[in-house]
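Aim 2 progress update. The chain analyzed this quarter is reproduced below.
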Amino acid sequence: MPTINRFELSRALRQFRAIKLPLDGRRAAAVSIAVLVEDGKPAIWLTERSSTLRAHPGQFAFPGGRIDPNETAAEAALRELHEELGIAAHPEQIIGELDDYATKSGYVITPFVVWIGDFTGTLRPNESEVARVHTVTMDEVDADPRFVTDPQVDSPILQWPFRDFDIHAPTAAILYQFREVVLRQRQTRVAHYGQPVFAWQ
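Predicted structure tokens:
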């Protein structure tokens, strides 16, 4: 695995040209892949959504949400990171972005990679939105995905194994592309992978 620091992350993301998608009637959203260093080891934060939320309760997600009127995607990603986890990051901490990902639930998600760096503070999760926060190591991010089929879904469904869970697209697809671009230096696209029925019904 390559060294993960701000310079190496920036270099890998500069070599990747993110694909932008038209909304075509869908709603715009943005998420943050926040890269921190804890005890000298890089990691990212992944949340479990509150079971009381109307949309996607209990699912794994990156901090993020809908883009408000008169707000850029980058501004939305940083705002949601602060609202959900209490992390205040500045625009210059955004070091790149991945492909837009269109969801079956009617969103186009823009994922931003945000460099947090050495983290010795305390997360302040918003209890109305976040049930739990996981600090995911780069060894865990580097897990090989699985591909399963469903007669109701046209394309193979990407599953990312995480501890005792199987995480699915869209979160799994974004994670997989982050792994491919940053850890493997591969220009892998993920828009064609299917999403399980429960993720959009």
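Residues 2 and 86 are 29 Å apart (CA to CA). The helical segments are 6-14, 73-85, 138-141, 171-183. These observations will guide the mutagenesis experiments scheduled for the next reporting period.
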